[in-house]
Amino acid sequence: MTFTAAPALVVGEALADVVVDAAGGVGRALPGGSPANVALGLGRLGHPVRLATRVGRDAHGGRLRRHLREGGVLLIPGSVTGEATSTATATLDASGAAGYTFDISWSLTAEAAAAVRSGPVAHLHTGSIAAALPPGADTVLAAVRWAAPRATVSYDPNLRPDLLGPAEGQRERVEALVAASDVVKASDEDLAWLYPGADPDATARHWATGGGPSLVVVTRGARGARAWWRSGTLEVPAPRVTVADTIGAGDAFTSALISALLDAGLLGPAPESRARLREATAPGGLPPVLGGALTLAARAAALTCTRTGADPPGRADLAL
Q: Quick one: which of 7, 74, 158, 269 could link to 128 by a disulfide (CB 3.0–4.6 Å)?
């Protein structure tokens, strides 16, 4: 049963991924940006979704807008500006894993920031550069705090160290967003960078039991994913696939996880959906629902790894 009565809202960057292969060959620019990828995944999975972002009227921006529109994503008014669209250069190693360098300026326009608060919202998702890079990160945190009484919230730090400076400068902001969220998805690399020397599992457990999110999920690449909640933990393997590249795999995981929890009624308008999520993660709750959501998310990430660029699956791809 689907409980979603109003659109999902994603707040964050959309940019062009310029892919460089292991031999140094530069391919075409592909649509990307972690929050935009999550919005696209949700749209392809059948959820009404709005995206508050910043793209230009240039060629990169035109491709991004077309790509998102075809995936069912509606841009918030004020998301298109006269400035150049941001880019990320994704350099692939021999295994298909990507490292990134960025040419990005992030903030929402005043029109977009106002529009975030003007429409219906069942669930808000944010993360990555948009939630970390000033000056726009302050607007993102304000949007999360505005949404929390009305809707559930998910957050993916998806940190970019080369863009952000020392980890200690990010911890307070990350922890504020974690505390305001119902679901947090992070990579083991995020946690290792954010808390050097600390066990990522211990960090995830602390987040899940500290009175903030009901569910914390850590993705670990080819080793699958592990989830923590107040009364337990669960691990799911990563399906084995032939990897084209890993661009957008984590975002596909996130969108499929959110989709499954929306469909189960565990995310959506607050306070009812938040209460259902709390109940499902309490002792004696519903681990099979959670296991199914995590398994679906792992399948979505694996399928994305078989494709070039950030190309999340739809319902037909996942046989839903």
A: 158
